[in-house]
Amino acid sequence: MALTEETAVDKIEVVGDYSHVQVRTATIIKKDGVEISRSFHRHVIQPGDDYSNEEAEVQAVCAAVHTDEVKAAYAAFLESQASEMGGE
Predict the structure, then answer these.
(1) How far apart (Å, rounded) are the C-alpha atoms in residues 82 and 88?
(2) Which residues are within 8 A (CB) of 81 and not within 5 positions of it... i.e. 6 or more apart?
(3) What does pTM read for this prediction?
(4) How many whole angstroms separate alpha carbon 66 and alpha carbon 63?
(5) CB–CB of 29/38 below 8 Å?
(6) What are the counts of helices (DSSP H) followed by strands (DSSP E) for the chain?
């Protein structure tokens, strides 16, 4: 009986006004080559985040949608939210 574990990015979505990139990673457990379990983990990459440790496909999506204009608009949005909350 051989148990193996694989992980793979199985879904990449671009959502919202500021092109947040949602990444879903599947963890697949197999017994003798037959899948017996699958679980998921999600994380979000915001404009301006460092995505250099992501898989190549995720990096390509981020590079395409996180343009300088999108990053600037998102930074301005965050600043406006901070001032509305009584921050800086």
Answers:
(1) 6
(2) none
(3) 0.85
(4) 6
(5) yes
(6) 2, 3
Instruction: Please report the pLDDT score of residue 11 as a whole number.
Output: 98
Distance CA 57, CA 64 (A): 11
Is the pLDDT at 42 greater than 80? The verdict is yes
**pLDDT tier for residue 85 given thresholds of 50, 70 and 90:** confident
Residue with tokens 């301006």: 48
CA 47, 49, 53 angle in degrees (round to 5)? 130
Tokens of 5: 């574990």
The C-alpha angle 22, 26, 29, rounded to 5 degrees, equals: 170
Tell me, what's the pLDDT at 87? 56
